[in-house]
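Risk mitigation, structural track. In case the binding assays with pyridoxal-5'-phosphate fail to produce interpretable data, a predicted complex structure has been prepared as a fallback.
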Amino acid sequence: MEKKRIYLSCPTMHGEELEFVHEAFDTNWVAPLGPNVNEFEKEVAAYTGSKAAAALSAGTAAIHLALKLADVKEGDIVFVSDLTFSATCNPICYEKAIPVFIDSEPDTWNMDPKALKKAFEKYPNPKAVVCVHLYGTPAKIDELMAICGEHNVPFIEDAAESMSATYKGKQTGTFGKFGIFSFNGNKIITTSGGGMLVSDDEEAIARARFLSTQARDAARHYQHSNIGYNYRMSNVVAGIGRGQMLHLEEHKAIKKKIYEQYKAAFADIEEITMNPMNPDGDSNCWLSCMTLSEGCEVTPNQIMDALEAENMESRPIWKPMHLQPVFEGYDFISAAEGDISVGEDIFNRGLCLPSDIKNTEEDMANIISIVRGCFGR
Ligand SMILES: *Cc1c(COP(=O)(O)O)cnc(C)c1O
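Fallback model:
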């Protein structure tokens, strides 16, 4: 018999989700919009402490609309995290704007304030800064936002991976002009697919709802003065989200426990360092990751192969954007001392461990023993 698959991070449903979905069916609110969408928005706004939220079809759509609302246009420069998933920066290209990739710092793996400063020296007038909170660990938000503030440039937080993580007691995604969350299947909560744009600017969120529903002017006939998008979340999907919101804190607690368990289990192996936490924040530990020391005889690939042989899913660290063929030719700004950027170094030496909250104690013990085995322990 094939061994049970152990996942990196996959959906965990509880039952309430289906009740909200049933409600949508029973009241025939199967069309887009409806009570679940409105309530889900209110619940996310209340939970995060944002004034307003717009439920959308994807986190990527939320980033796209954040850029539109920040008036990013063709030829504009946008500074963006280099070490991230491509969805963070793809929407910059949808608008024919120009991404400039900013290297990470080693303390949180997120956008390096020193590199951001350097980028402003080279390009004094970017239209926006898009910063990710990678793997759920908050970036150095105060430092980054101080620099953006000096230049009067809007700060947009890609909190797709960090929902429920806090920085100085406040939710990630609520610091910048805009924040975005993702409810893709692998995220800490999921709606099977979806996203949310949050902001304290209620007018901007109303505008996002307008743009996401084909930009229909207030006229009886179909009249359009803007290019619109079909980006709204459906009422069925929002029902799943409402059910998941009831378990967000619980998911976070289990993710954090998984991280702590790995950290303790590998504490005696000098070559292993777990991904960093921000001492000013509280990570949601969406994925537990490790890096191997420089010159370590064991490679990330060997560990991934050993896990895969036992039907356990692991994954490399996101490959930095400036190394992606599709983004060749765009500028990359680093403040790294050596001849390799911080992001590339993390990519070379790191991997993501199975971080699914349904992993049992036995699963965790098995994963740990396979990783330890790679080091002859
Ligand atoms: C998942 C993810 C997104 C995209 O979210 P979707 O809902 O899949 O569109 C954006 N940025 C980061 C960092 C992500 O991990």
